[in-house]
Amino acid sequence: MLQTPREIFGLAAISLWEIGKRVQIGKLELPKNLAVWFADALAPNIEVLPLTADIVNEAMSLPEFPNHDPADELIVATARLHKLTLITTDRKLKKYRHVRIHYFTPIDTQSTAE
Fold first, then answer.
1. Would you list the domain boundaries of the chain?
2. Which of 28, 37, 53, 77 could form a disulfide with 58 if both were Cys (CB 3.0 to 4.6 A apart)?
3. HSE of 17 in the Cβ direction (CA atoms, 13 Å)?
4. Rounded to an integer, what distance in angstroms lies between the CA atom of residue 106 and that of residue 89?
5. What is the CATH code of the structural domain delimited by 9-106?
6. Is the alpha carbon torsion for 105, 73, 53, 55 positive or negative?
7. Is 81 exposed, middle or buried (0-12, 13-18, 19+ CB in 10 A)?
8. Terminal Cα-to-Cα distance of the chain (whole angstroms)
9. Cα separation of 81 and 33, whole Å?
10. Calculated CA dihedral for residues 54, 101, 10, 34, nearest 10 degrees
11. Verdict on whether the full-model pTM lies above 0.70
12. Are 10 and 2 in contact (CB under 8 A)?
């Protein structure tokens, strides 16, 4: 999906922080250091959407939010303000009806590598 060069995808800046944090605490292992991985992963058709006061304000007023994860609130608020479809593997957000969601099951790289 992300390899469609004519399509532009938005990525909430907080998502980069989440990846970095997972690497830092050992919950995610990358094949290269974080800065190099980001440089490789952020294709030209991916626009990093900054965290703004409007996004924070939107996050503070999300109706019926399904969890207590501030990063998820900011990601959903970013999608809502930019009128984007949120592409996620997060089961907690799968049925959240106050933003357009495209849920997909992540590829299990452990079982496909064997």
1. 9-106
2. 77
3. 11
4. 6
5. 3.40.50.1010
6. positive
7. middle
8. 25
9. 32
10. 100
11. yes
12. no
**Phi–psi pair at 48, nearest 5 degrees:** -75, 120
Closest by alpha carbon to 50, among 20, 75, 25, 83? 75
* Closest to 70 measured CA to CA, from 28, 14, 19, 21: 14
Per residue in 13-26, pLDDT tens?
A: 999 999 999 999 99
Tracing tokens 């992963």 back to the chain, one arrives at: 41
3-state secondary structure of 39: helix
Condensed to tens digits (0 to 9), the pLDDT of residues 80-108 reads 999 999 999 888 998 899 999 988 887 76
